[in-house]
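Our platform keeps sequence and structure together, in a single record for each protein. Such a record has a labelled line for the sequence and another for the backbone structure tokens. Nothing more is needed to write down the fold, since each code stands for a local backbone conformation. For reference, a complete record is included directly beneath this paragraph:
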Amino acid sequence: MAIVRIVATGQEYRVGKVVCLARNYVDHIRELGNAVPEAPVLFIKPATSIIADGGTVVIPPYSQDCHHEVELAVLIGRTAKDVPAETALDFVAGYGVGIDLTLRDVQGTLKAKGLPWEAAKGFDTACPLSDFVPAAAIVDPHALAIRFRINGELRQDATTALMLRRLPEIIAFASTRFTLEAGDVILTGTPAGVGPVHSGDQLLGEIEGIGSIAVRVA
């Protein structure tokens, strides 16, 4: 059972699911040679993929190419179903830092066959996730520096202002596809600069005003 918390209040939530948005930063879309989607592309990581700050990533033996993707994480505070974009942010309890670890070789094979991505995205330890700050503490979630480092070396350096789709649209759309419940987390896409991680690497994801998540690779 995965539990996340809002540090300032001590409030804890049990995570039911992690809803992820793919292809939300143009430079990342281009670096992978993908097309800009006409509608949001969603996939799910199970709660069993979550590890906390200080945890250890275990790359499955069936992959030789695991990549990092740092993302703004959105914690849902109450049930949201078919909500309009105009009120979507009212359902946000907090913001955190997530790392969407992806088995790129496995994903490529699945995509080539027209199959779902979950085997490449939902393995145990695939979702390092920080504690959360209250939503009210972030004036504008679309104006935050977002960075990722491996062994201290900067690999991703961007701003959430570069998102193609902003949070109200993301939350509203996701709520038409899945009922969002208190404790669900939405990962909102990654900027350019993704690349491989290896055994022994120290990973650090950071978002301005929110915090950081640090894990190591076994």
Observations:
- The radius of gyration is 16 Å.
- The helical segments are 26-31, 104-112, 118-121, 167-177.
